Amino acid sequence: MPKVSVTIITLNEAEHIGAAIDSASWADEIVVVDSGSTDGTEGIAKQKGATVLSREWSGYVDQKNFAAERVSNDWIFSLDADERIPTALAAELRAVLASEPPKRGYRVPRVTFHLGRWIRTTDFYPDFQTRLYDRRAARWRGKYVHESVSVDGPVGQLRHDLEHYSYRDLRDHLDRINHYTSLAARKMHEAGRRAGPLDLALHPPAAFLRNYILRRGVLDGTAGLTISIVNAFSVFLKFAKLLELQQSADGQGPPPSP
User: Can you list the domains of the chain with their CATH numbers?
Assistant: First the structure.
């Protein structure tokens, strides 16, 4: 039976870290890599029995690869501090690891709690994430946003949900959209992507229809409608920021604030 390590990277996650570690108590080892928390995150993690390493922040991808290199076991489950491994998923993970798994990585569906309910519609769900992987055949990759595990070979898929407590409220959701759309626009610009008026006019309505109709946000009532609108706004903001970047690069306006 392969042993498994759970890795968690943190920065000021005192609100979440205790419950995250508790949900991973089935694992053989839990390693937390903290990047300078000042709210007691490290102390809580140590009190819960996790091994805590301190390291200056170097980006999501590098930080998660560092964590994977420092654990004792080759099989890793990467957990974010605002996520929980419920009992059903823990049992499924133990079953997969009861013998040497046939795949080198496994995706899990992730469900988010937001606006007072679990959201199983819109772009929020199933939000598959590759989290269980063999570090001998996998590595975190990505730039700025949307880091993910790249696995050498086919990836399996698990059935039970990973729980995600991503947003405190709608204001927190909007604050994060503002941050991540800036990173997404930067990544697109560096990749040579360009935006025009048609992108601003067509992509956001298409995103709303995809979320609200095709991905059944309508079934989640007000929450589904709100998320569909916010997701469409996120798409608009990403292309608007991309347009701003290219205008600045072409000398048509002042450079955006960092």
Answer: 4-164 (3.90.550.10), 170-249 (no CATH)
